[in-house]
């Protein structure tokens, strides 16, 4: 691929239309595996993947939209209901990335955890050389927007994570100062849940994790009577718990129906994706099992409190989105202008060499002639430079294509990669290039 160019295509399966099982089906592979697979496909120059508990998304950069759509076709092939698979063109992909980072697309409006997840996905993609100029700058711009909206607005006031939302739901159903809670897992989601439960006055906390040191670290961070155990002790810990919150990365359920079928009244919240708690546990009369699909009701109050802030964030995202497109256009035009100047410089150098070879000039006189040649090139190219930038701003790529034909004798009439298939292709998004964050 020449320069920082191409068209972004995306696909997503998210909580707004999909179930937990749909999202799990789309995110069967790891982020790193998805990026590696996509970049190995013909015509894919860059790839990025974001998997969280409530979304599965992938993006590619190709020379044209059709190639991008084809590359992403198999990403959600295991999702049974195709109606929940949303395919995005260039502009929709960019706007969606900004909205996700801003917390506008989260179950808990404005939650902070998504920013860390995007940063982690960014590092995963970089680790397998999946990012190039386009997606690298697009994702960094999204992170910048996410940080800005949280610094400048109240979008993250109140319940700010799925873990704290789960704790809020549990607190509505249980007398926490009289309860023992079991948190299974010691990652970010489990940590947020454990802290939120402790902050609400939980009596006793047990953290079960595959590696005991991680569980012990989490226990040391909460101000409550707490104990760390390994998953080998999960059965006994479950029997003694009034509240169970699970958030592991296991591919299979870690808690079966029979683990909860002892007649004890329990509240169970499954924050994992795929599910940590066997679906059959919902049939138990003494157990209330909630999962990510149930968070919508829990967060209604939070959404109401943040509605005004969200309107401000919507305006901010749209402003940043417009700046992003303008930056892409300027970069694309600058690449074409650079090609024009390089062609002119070649002609100038050739003609200068011919002229100076015929003249007997001293150093000062040679400098005058060379300065005159530079000035002529600059003055002659100033009007077309402005016209090309105006053409890019108006998406007039036919003018830019014509300019390449006029100023570059070696240009054969087929657009280079940075113009790609955009000229004359109504399905191709024209506003692409590299983002330089000059905010």
UniProtKB/TrEMBL annotation:
<feature type="binding site">
    <location>
        <begin position="185"/>
        <end position="190"/>
    </location>
    <ligand>
        <name>NADP(+)</name>
    </ligand>
</feature>
<dbReference type="Pfam" id="PF05201">
    <property type="entry name" value="GlutR_N"/>
</dbReference>
<dbReference type="Pfam" id="PF00745">
    <property type="entry name" value="GlutR_dimer"/>
</dbReference>
<dbReference type="InterPro" id="IPR015895">
    <property type="entry name" value="4pyrrol_synth_GluRdtase_N"/>
</dbReference>
<dbReference type="GO" id="GO:0008883">
    <property type="term" value="F:glutamyl-tRNA reductase activity"/>
</dbReference>
<feature type="binding site">
    <location>
        <position position="117"/>
    </location>
    <ligand>
        <name>substrate</name>
    </ligand>
</feature>
<dbReference type="InterPro" id="IPR018214">
    <property type="entry name" value="GluRdtase_CS"/>
</dbReference>
<keyword id="KW-0521">NADP</keyword>
<comment type="subunit">
    <text>Homodimer.</text>
</comment>
<feature type="binding site">
    <location>
        <begin position="52"/>
        <end position="55"/>
    </location>
    <ligand>
        <name>substrate</name>
    </ligand>
</feature>
<feature type="site" description="Important for activity">
    <location>
        <position position="96"/>
    </location>
</feature>
<feature type="active site" description="Nucleophile">
    <location>
        <position position="53"/>
    </location>
</feature>
<dbReference type="InterPro" id="IPR000343">
    <property type="entry name" value="4pyrrol_synth_GluRdtase"/>
</dbReference>
<dbReference type="InterPro" id="IPR036453">
    <property type="entry name" value="GluRdtase_dimer_dom_sf"/>
</dbReference>
<dbReference type="InterPro" id="IPR036291">
    <property type="entry name" value="NAD(P)-bd_dom_sf"/>
</dbReference>
<dbReference type="Pfam" id="PF01488">
    <property type="entry name" value="Shikimate_DH"/>
</dbReference>
<feature type="domain" description="Glutamyl-tRNA reductase N-terminal">
    <location>
        <begin position="11"/>
        <end position="153"/>
    </location>
</feature>
<dbReference type="InterPro" id="IPR036343">
    <property type="entry name" value="GluRdtase_N_sf"/>
</dbReference>
<comment type="pathway">
    <text>Porphyrin-containing compound metabolism; protoporphyrin-IX biosynthesis; 5-aminolevulinate from L-glutamyl-tRNA(Glu): step 1/2.</text>
</comment>
<feature type="domain" description="Quinate/shikimate 5-dehydrogenase/glutamyl-tRNA reductase">
    <location>
        <begin position="175"/>
        <end position="298"/>
    </location>
</feature>
<dbReference type="InterPro" id="IPR015896">
    <property type="entry name" value="4pyrrol_synth_GluRdtase_dimer"/>
</dbReference>
<feature type="binding site">
    <location>
        <position position="106"/>
    </location>
    <ligand>
        <name>substrate</name>
    </ligand>
</feature>
<feature type="domain" description="Tetrapyrrole biosynthesis glutamyl-tRNA reductase dimerisation">
    <location>
        <begin position="312"/>
        <end position="408"/>
    </location>
</feature>
<keyword id="KW-0560">Oxidoreductase</keyword>
<dbReference type="GO" id="GO:0050661">
    <property type="term" value="F:NADP binding"/>
</dbReference>
<protein>
    <recommendedName>
        <fullName>Glutamyl-tRNA reductase</fullName>
        <ecNumber>1.2.1.70</ecNumber>
    </recommendedName>
</protein>
<comment type="function">
    <text>Catalyzes the NADPH-dependent reduction of glutamyl-tRNA(Glu) to glutamate 1-semialdehyde (GSA).</text>
</comment>
<comment type="similarity">
    <text>Belongs to the glutamyl-tRNA reductase family.</text>
</comment>
<dbReference type="GO" id="GO:0019353">
    <property type="term" value="P:protoporphyrinogen IX biosynthetic process from glutamate"/>
</dbReference>
<feature type="binding site">
    <location>
        <begin position="111"/>
        <end position="113"/>
    </location>
    <ligand>
        <name>substrate</name>
    </ligand>
</feature>
<dbReference type="InterPro" id="IPR006151">
    <property type="entry name" value="Shikm_DH/Glu-tRNA_Rdtase"/>
</dbReference>
<keyword id="KW-0627">Porphyrin biosynthesis</keyword>
